[in-house]
From TrEMBL:
InterPro entries: Cro/C1-type_HTH (IPR001387), Lambda_DNA-bd_dom_sf (IPR010982). CDD domains: HTH_XRE. PROSITE patterns: HTH_CROC1. This is Helix-turn-helix transcriptional regulator. Residues 1-46 form the HTH cro/C1-type domain. It comes from Tigheibacillus halophilus. SUPFAM superfamilies: lambda repressor-like DNA-binding domains (SSF47413).
Length: 78
């Protein structure tokens, strides 16, 4: 998504989007929620609220999915 597209979706200037990307602008909670919805990355918000980094939450999701798939496939061959 381009900075211009993101700026339109977040109802802010392109320069503010650029400042967000370079950590020179602090994101407001409402903007963070909007960003997560726009980018379909709600797990980032959940990770932040839980005090976890995005990599940790994604790894846990992948581990859970792998276990679930293994259980399903294993059940098919019993």
């Amino acid at each position: 998504m381009s900075q211009e597209d993101m700026a339109l979706e977040l109802h802010m200037s392109i320069s503010n989007v650029s400042r967000l990307e370079s950590n020179k602008y602090e994101l407001k909670a409402a903007d963070l929620i909007r960003w997560c919805n726009i980018t379909n990355a709600q797990e980032v918000l959940i990770a932040l609220l839980c005090g976890m980094d995005g990599i940790t939450i994604m790894q846990q999701l992948m581990d859970t999915a792998t276990t679930l798939v293994g259980t399903i496939i294993g059940g098919l061959f019993i």
